[in-house]
Amino acid sequence: MGQWDVFLSPYKQAVDELKIKLKGMRTQFGIQGNTSPIEFVTGRVKPLASIYDKTREKGIPFEPSEQLAEQMQDIAGIRIMCQFVDDISTVTRLIRQRDDLRVVEEIDYIAHKKQSGYRSYHMIVEYPVETINGRISVLAEIQIRTLAMNFWASIEHSLNYKYQGVFPEEINNRLQRAAEAAFQLDEEMSSIRSEIQEAQAYFSEVKEATNPT
Ligand code: 0O2
């Protein structure tokens, strides 16, 4: 096993465990007959190529080290998608209450969107992983966002990859307009939230009645 595999293995375990635990929260809301503030959860260990790019940006050595573990806080990355903006504060509260992790930093790119138009709520957490050699604490970044914020971020991320961060003016203007449209969509959905949730509850009852298990 290479040095990188050894270094990244607790991050992989952290991502796997956090995904299961956060998905479990969604299931628990369902069992209690409540609408979940979590729509879906994804996670990934940052690919080596992205780790390399970021070490260049930050001016730190590209090697598995304590310095890298301290300065690159998103090697383990979790994304939680919510239907409504208000769900985000519910999810952050639930995360802060947990005893199996410690929140070390919170960055609110929703109240203060980035210049790119990016909106999302970031929590950096310290998460202990139990291994055969004892406990190893790793940092993980949890990004919490609405479906609309996620749609915008995914598209912008792919374009960023294509243009290496230097967008032609036309694309840049369109992305800014799309960010504004995503914001408006979130606002509209929030204002008809109770109607949407009543409809969702009605459909899940109908589904249960027609597919009894
Ligand atoms: P990937 O491919 O998702 O891993 P910092 O060290 O805090 O000064 P850092 O680490 O860049 O700077 O933190 P920041 O700005 O909070 O960004 C961390 C992650 O948030 C990014 O990881 C993206 O996932 C997401 N993000 C931040 N800004 C933007 C943006 O403008 N557009 C999009 N689409 N995503 C953004 P990576 O490493 O960039 O990418």
Structure description:
The protein is α+β, with helices and mostly antiparallel strands. The chain has a domain at 3-150: Beta Polymerase, domain 2 (2-Layer Sandwich), CATH 3.30.460. Helix content is 55%, strand content 21%. It has 7 helices and 5 strands, in the order H-E-H-H-E-H-E-E-E-H-H-H. It has a 5-stranded mixed β-sheet with strand order 1-2-5-4-3. Helix 5 (147-163) runs antiparallel to helix 6 (169-191). The longest helix is centred in the N-terminal third of the chain and has 29 residues, at 3-31. The protein is globular, with a radius of gyration of 19 Å. The termini are far apart. The mean pLDDT is 94. The site of ligand 0O2 has 12 residues, from helix 2 and helix 5. Ligand 0O2 is lined by residues 46, 50, 54, 74, 107, 114, 116, 118, 122, 153, 156-157. Homotetramer. Residues 43-167 form the RelA/SpoT domain. Its EC number is 2.7.6.5.
Q: Helices and strands in order, then pairings?
A:
Blueprint: H1 3-31, E1 40-45, H2 48-58, H3 66-71, E2 76-82, H4 85-97, E3 102-108, E4 121-131, E5 134-146, H5 147-163, H6 169-191, H7 193-210
Helix pairs in contact: 5-6
The site of ligand 0O2 has 12 residues, from helix 2 and helix 5.
Summarize the structure.
Residues 43-167 form the RelA/SpoT domain. The chain is α+β, with helices and mostly antiparallel strands and 213 residues long. It is built from 7 helices and 5 strands; from the N terminus they run αβααβαβββααα.
Q: What descriptors fit this protein?
A:
about 210 residues; alpha+beta; Beta Polymerase, domain 2; 5-stranded mixed beta sheet; 7 helices; 5 strands; about 20% strand; binds ligand 0O2; ATP binding; ATP-binding; nucleotide-binding
